[in-house]
């Protein structure tokens, strides 16, 4: 082969590689369809603008209908809008309580404290019981309204360890550690305490500087949290300002690796092999 | 010229392979052992186990009938493991490898393994409500399309069966097959038997040596052993065919009519066709649930549902249908589900005065707050023709 022909062949190969690689390179550099809408939706949601956020999530899902994250977020926001409408329009009933509870949990887990306070104030006016007080106290704490929380819990904190923990936590946040310790003595967790109570008492312990106790409670809370909800629970632990004093401890990272010990009930799956309820499907 | 049995084997294996790998059907739905495994759950609770359904019960029913008529002819004609094992052994013979004869005592002891296996499998399956044997089944390794449920053990058992078949005839069928353990007690009373005319028998022993199941055919006038698969290999090996054959498949009883191998194949074919037809004519749901008394004007909503593929998913479907938030479907309900790979089918009967199809569609597809796990649970179900977000895709 002559040098010219070799040069020509080499040039052809280089050209071919460039032709093939160019669109790939462009695709890697270009933003994914719907990404901007999705980011905008998240930003609006953080500001508590649920309806506006829903529009952007829907636009993201329409731009990339195969993107399950976008579609699921759009569906969740559509659901939240439905719940908001239902809660706003209807009177107290079993369905109203269930719907309000779903909405409350979404707000709290999404860090939407002010919206949670708005909802739970109405819920507590209607329900006037320890459950609604728990919701409202949780909402106040999420929104950083510690004074309102202590005012509310002055009446209710004796009704459950969780309410006592909320009360003590609010007091600790207000710089009243002695009062917090006194009230916190009522936050005695039972042997079979639920993970939410354990988590809240762990927050209180951490706020009072009882790090070892806080870590032990947190570990038990994670162990009692179903596997599907564990990432969410750990995310809340990482983000919690009450647990910030633990973040620097090596044992905190170890606690965050805790696995769930909950045997899950079967709600289906495409395959038994990865089913967390393996062996319990028919029960 | 291939015998009718060989043609049946080939045709049936091709049918299964095309059905699984070309049409992408689910062989598991037709597994007769699945029928054994699901029987308890189906008759006690009215719902099938795991990914099984009424088709498994029909397949098992067809095999029960075939046992009564043709003994274990299913094993020698249709079972893909039997076919692969037998052909592997044939191949070894062509290479000049003679199959090893297993001593009778050892054969008898090894044969007990399948009964022990059956007890363990059925007990574990009923206790765990899961198809335990699927993880070890060589047929599933062959026909499971390398799905994630297939464990390494299934390939080990499958590969071991093929390897062992080079040296021993039908090792899995003789010693390990749990379905054979179910079939044997019934097979003993099967209508068709290999009979030997002692007056014309020259006692050459070729029949016994040819029997792939290790039956001493030359020792009694009638083969009564439950493990006989009516394959006719002994009949073909018999050297005396002048006039009335010395060795032949005949009906039991006084008349002892000759049963040509084509008839065996034909009857099997009819039984399997009957099972398919039966499951089509009697589409009994694999999953049933109801709440309250339906009124006379109850309406039935039929849906084609994506990802409704097993009992677990049917349970999850019911979970969404019975949600208690603002999308609650109120009033009496009846759910009949036919889970199937990729897309299942359901019939939901409801009171039209209390609810409507739109509410049902929304209840089934919109996320629902799961208080047990404390988070929003997404519905995995896609309902054909219903697009909750109006995305316009699939």
Briefly summarize what is shown.
The complex is a heterodimer of chains A (283) and B (394). Chain A is an all-alpha fold.
Based on the model shown, name its key terms.
A: 283 residues; Serine Threonine Protein Phosphatase 5, Tetratricopeptide repeat; 69% helix; globular; disordered C terminus; B: 394 residues; alpha+beta; five-stranded antiparallel beta sheet; two-stranded antiparallel ribbon
How would you describe this protein?
The complex is a heterodimer of chains A (283) and B (394). With 283 residues, chain A is mainly alpha-helical. In chain A, 69% of the residues lie in helices and 0% in strands. Chain A is globular, with a radius of gyration of 25 Å. In chain B, strand 5 and strand 6 form a beta hairpin. Chain B has helices spanning 4-22, 32-45, 54-70, 73-77, 80-94, 104-128, 138-143, 152-165, 171-176, 178-187, 206-210, 233-237, 261-281, 311-321, 357-365; strands spanning 192-196, 247-251, 287-291, 299-306, 333-338, 343-350, 368-370, 375-377, 382-383. With 394 residues, chain B is α+β, with helices and mostly antiparallel strands. Chain B contains 15 helices and 9 strands. Classes of the chains: A mainly alpha (283), B alpha+beta (394). Chains A and B meet through helix 3, helix 4 and helix 5 of A and helix 14, strand 7 and strand 8 of B.
